[in-house]
Amino acid sequence: MANNRLSDLIHVLVYVQMHEESKLTSDLIASSLNTNPSLARRMMSQLKKASLLETTKGTATPRLSRSPAKITIFDVYMATLPEAPLLKVDKNTSKDCAVGHALPKVLGKYYLDVQSTAEAKMRKITIQDIINDVNMDIAHHQKEISMLNS
User: Secretion signal: which residues (predicted)?
Assistant: First the structure.
């Protein structure tokens, strides 16, 4: 039921930014995502349509459309073209049951609050924040490996 499109689109942006000096084919990006190149191209097209990524036909040089500090997770979330909220209330409940009748409306109120809170948080997290954390994780992992090899 969970959708990993947001995670994958963030992954593409982070990968592109962290390899901005390199030639980046859809094969390379796809290998990082552990997927196929055509799916990587579709994701890059989706990011381009959302004005988050710039590409030039015939060259393997995708670039973020603006500074990673200016792209939020909410921007990427909106690029996923969310057709439904994060949480969906099951409205197909029994209207003959008091709980079945009331619960969809009650849950809808709470789910709307969760949606608003999640979106507000997404507006505060940038691609640069994620890149910083990825770099820290990579450095930590490399330190652990070098300690094991010592």
Answer: none
Residue found under tokens 């010592």: 150
Q: What is the pLDDT of residues 4-58, one digit of tens each?
A: 899 999 999 999 999 998 899 999 999 999 999 999 999 999 999 999 999 888 7
Name the residue ranges covered by the structural domains of the chain: 5-149
- From CA 14, how far away is CA 132, in angstroms rounded? 10
All residues at 6 or more sequence positions from 38 whose CB lies less than 8 Å from its CB, including other chains: 26
Query: Are 64 and 54 contacting, i.e. CB atoms less than 8 angstroms apart?
Result: yes
With tokens 């084919």, the residue in question is 25
Residue type, 143: K
Spatial contact of 71 and 13, defined as CB atoms under 8 Å apart: yes
Architecture of domain 5-149 in this structure:
Orthogonal Bundle (1.10)
